[in-house]
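seq as requested:
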Amino acid sequence: MVRTIRELAAALPNGIGPAGPPVQAAAARHGLARRARRRVLVDRLATLAVRGGGVGIIASILAILIFIIAEVLPLLSSAHVELRSLLPLPAAAPVRALVGDEFGTHVAALDLSGIVRVVRVDDGAEVARESLLAEGDTPLVAAQVPPGSGLLSGATADGRVLLAPVAWNARFEGQQRVITPTLDPPDVVHVDPAQRAPRAYTAARGSGGVAVAAQLADGSLVVVRARKETNDFTGETTASEDRLTGPAPDQPLVAMAFDGTQENLFGADGGGTLYWWPIGPSGIGAAQTASAGGPVTALSVLLGGRSLVVGQDNGALSVWFAVPQDGAARLTRIRDFPPHGAAISAIAPSRRDKGFLALDQQGGLGLYYSTSERTLWEGRAPLNGGALAFAPRGTAAYLSGDGQLAVLDVANPHPEVSFQALFGRVWYEGYDRPRFVWQSSSGTDDFEPKLSLTPLLFGTLKGTVYSLLIAIPLAVFGAMYLSQFMHPRLKSVVKPAVEIMAALPSVVLGFLAGLWLAPRIQRFFPALFCMALLFPLLSIGAGALWESLPRRWRGRLHAGSEVWLFAAVLAAGLWLSLALSPVVEQTLFAGNFQDWLLRTTGLPYDQRNAIIVGLAMGFAVIPIIFAIAEDAFSNVPRDLVSGSLALGANRWQTVTRIVLPTASPGIFSAIMVGFGRAVGETMIVLMATGNTPILDWNPFNGFRTLSANIAVEIPEAPLGATLYRVLFLAALLLFAVTFVVNTAAELVRQRLRRRYAQL
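struct tokens:
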């Protein structure tokens, strides 16, 4: 009933009835306004969402960049050495040897009267005192802490050397750590049967006992090895001693030091001559000498015993080590540090790294690091120094003099890092010349970490180049053919199939490349040479065959059907290459390509090499370049193509002279995106190459990239340590490389777009 009345009212003449045209028009206008407001609101919300998403992406990238920079910045921090406290250290004779406990709570000091005093660092209280000498013994003529040890040693006037280890016994009382120092009875080694004071001496302790080297009063050289063996069943202790003698140096020695294995002995005389004696079971070998260029006043070895630090009377500081030369090793001057203003009086090596402290006679104190060749800190010593020592953890140093003990706080966070160490050639211990080397760790802490990023940058570039050499031609020409020549029906199948390749996980590609492809390439490597020769010839022959077919035959087929002929020909070429591989290897490579390569060129063949990575990573990069390049070809205006064809150009001329230049900005962008994908690839490189950080374009060996190095090293990198932050620096370099490449690509793309915009 209501519906009928409304229908009748609507049928009445204009102006009659409750819902006439003026009312309907107002309602329509109200509805339109409401829909317009809704559209405006939706449009504004969409705009805000898009803007928010864009800003969020930019903010996320900037946040990642800021975080990486924040982790890298501590590498630039400088070292600091500050006086913590001055403690009383009364002694009847000058203190010549200092050694501290691992926790930096106590210091043991040995003076020339033979007294060992243990001082608590917090308040300077003397907590223990012992004498190394028995009543009536002759006094000490020298005392020292042998480099790299915690031994207190002294030489007496009657030709004995005393070695006293200090035991720092730790226990906990509640939450408080308590250190109780104990001094075991010293080991006594008689170096001179004639009971004369040695001119110079050094000592070392190893698993086999103690070793003492000395120059006797008559100038002769002696090495004494003393061992004590305890029978596990009877408890009986048996002592034995081996004495080795050697020729006398030309002048009296001022300093001596063992290497880490006690198989080499170093010395220096006042005339500036350095000596290196090899020590064997049968005796001391002939000395190798080198001139330091001036009188030597101090000498020590760094951690590991391979590097020798030499201080001279003119303040010069230098680092020496053995360098392989012509089949023999020669003691060579490797590094020089800024000289002090006076003669070097003491050198204290660190027991944790290749750093050392050096003190001169005028109170100048410096902190140095050998590998990075850095002067970390220079200043004035708080005392007129006598003995100088590094704390075991390298966080403190101790200096005695004027009846006091100075405790120095040492902040030395990342001494291994310098621009030269990260990007330049560094002469490492045991190498014949300066090199670029990455070796973050080794079997022992005695070796210096090698943190050169140059091999990793080179490996990143190498892997990218080899992969793009394969990916760019296949992807660009494939996109050109698909866009301009292939039949649309076939195109609708091929294009999604190629693009879906991008969804393959890189870890799967790396797994297949490393475990399946690499052994087969090694076995059938000559087949690659056959493919490189046969594929172009067969492709040209197939094209000529297709063109020779009568037009009426080709006209019955869809445009682009020739792809099946080419696919069959290439499949036949692949089969033929594999079949000919043994024949080619036997004929050209004497039956074994790997052996022939090594004999002829000296290049080794690694199973997982740059070629494998190029094939696998090229397969991963092809879909990205292909998709973007195909869009660039397809977006060329059709009127340009039609106009070119209408003017008489054939299809190939139109594609190469009209379509390709017009699409060049997009093609260049596709290549740069593929470059970025290859630069950042991790899993394929990690699994398909040997991860050897070497500088070599040889395609038959491996490499290591920045991204793969981060993946390999970060699980083992201690939080906040130098390696940890250097890995973040590698990530920052990847970020910078990608940013620079993308920026340059955008500039080139814009320039190409402006250049070809008038076509």
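Confidence is low (pLDDT under 50) at residues 11-17.
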